[in-house]
Specification:
Strand order of the largest sheet: 2-1-6-5-7
Number of helices: 8
Bound molecules: adenine
Shape: elongated
Strand content: 15-25%
């Protein structure tokens, strides 16, 4: 997969290339991340990329020309042409979820555009960008950290990027629920024992316990997720039981 990131602050992305999993994935040829300075696509001698909004108002907007030309340049560099999503990172975007990471991981090429200042000229949204993503209901100084979040969530789903021991199938959110609690040795630490069932060797009972723990944790922390999670009749019955004795929910 190729990911091209368009930004006014390319230095912020140094961290991506030099860290464990990303570095290994790049060395293995599983992912190729290109960082591009939008300013390089500005034609005037001062490399201006922003301007005042028509109609007045506070703040500056990113001009359309350098953004269109930067996207066109990175698109042309990729052969054969593909239906590359052009993603604007903005607090006005749709909330980013695990399902979006899974969908984006199916593409061979992504273009991420980091917004800045008060926003971008609307024609960028209308005629260039194919989707807008927000990583949460808060405002960052720019889209760079959001682009790194999206890149991380997508890259780790590319087959071969994670070792087989950390399978993304078990992640929180991958089945619409939060993950169940996990324990490792020692079996008793400072008088806090590991739940006995995990030491029992009974795989069916362990699976059931883990499912129930995931349901309980999701009900307590993120009940909104239960609306869309894949639940069977047993799960629904267990949730009803938990609701009737909420103090034992976790
Ligand atoms: N840019 C500024 N804030 C953002 C957010 N919450 N998500 C994505 N991009 C942003």
């Amino acid at each position: 997969m190729r990911i091209d990131i368009l930004t006014l602050f390319p230095g912020m992305f140094d961290i991506l290339g030099g860290t464990g999993i990303f570095q290994r994935a790049a060395e293995q040829g599983l992912v190729d991340i290109g960082i591009h300075n939008i300013r390089d696509y500005s034609h005037d001698k001062h490399h201006v990329v922003d301007d005042y909004p028509y109609g007045g108002g506070a703040g500056m907007l990113l001009k359309p020309e350098p953004i269109f030309e930067a996207v066109e340049a990175v698109r042309q560099a990729v052969q054969p042409p593909s239906d590359t999503p052009v993603i604007l990172l903005t607090p006005q975007g749709c909330p980013f979820r695990q399902a979006d990471a899974q969908r984006l991981a199916q593409h061979s090429h992504l273009i991420l555009l980091c917004g800045h200042y008060e926003g971008v000229d609307e024609r960028v949204r209308q005629h260039l960008v194919t989707e807008e993503i927000s990583i949460g209901d808060y405002v960052l100084t720019g889209g760079e950290l959001a682009a790194m979040v999206v890149t991380d969530a997508v890259v780790r789903l590319i087959p071969g990027v994670l070792g087989s021991e950390d399978s993304p199938q078990d992640d929180s959110h991958s089945d619409g629920l939060l993950e169940y609690p996990q324990y490792t040795r020692p079996a008793d630490y400072r008088g806090w024992p590991v739940p006995e069932i995990l030491l029992s060797g009974n795989h069916a009972q362990i699976a059931r316990w883990r499912r129930q723990q995931a349901l309980a944790r999701t009900l307590q922390r993120r009940p909104d997720l239960l609306q869309t999670a894949e639940l069977d009749a047993k799960d629904i019955q267990y949730i009803e039981e938990l609701k009737s004795r909420p103090d034992e929910a976790e």
